[in-house]
Amino acid sequence: MEKKHLGKTVLLIALSATLLGGTLPAQAAEIHPNEVTAIQPREIGVAIMNCRLSISSGGNASCFGDVSMSAGYDSEITLALQRSTNGRTWSNVASWSGSGSETLTKSRFVTSGYDYRCKLTVKVYNSSGEYVITYSQYSDTISY
Predict the structure, then answer these.
(1) Adjacent-strand bridge partners of 67
(2) Rounded CA gap, 68 and 48, in Å?
(3) What pTM does this model have?
(4) Tell me: domain 46-143, CATH 2.60.40.10, correct?
(5) Backbone angles phi, psi at 133, to 5 degrees
(6) For the chain, what percentages of helix, strand and coil (3-state, to nearest 5) are there?
């Protein structure tokens, strides 16, 4: 009986020592005024990227894609309306293209019985016209 209590006591002491004595002091990076610091953006070359879908009660699906590029970058934009029967496999119903900083709002009538979403794809190019990276964003899925 005493072995049970001894084991629990040792475990409690070890846990307390770990929690109380095992903490490390926090350190913060120091930034000095007028010092150049590098900040990594979340997306290279893209300032804004937004994709939305709405479907009216009559079946008019409106895809909205908004892209704003950072200075010194260009883009090829593709906005696609996609549909699925199972939520895993998607196929394009329609697609539209643009470039640079652009807002695309496109509509198409859809058939009931499917899940729909919009896919916004942005291929980023630097000021020399060299391909940099591709980003994709999806709207919410709407069952119609």
Answers:
(1) 49, 102
(2) 5
(3) 0.69
(4) yes
(5) -165, 160
(6) 15, 50, 40
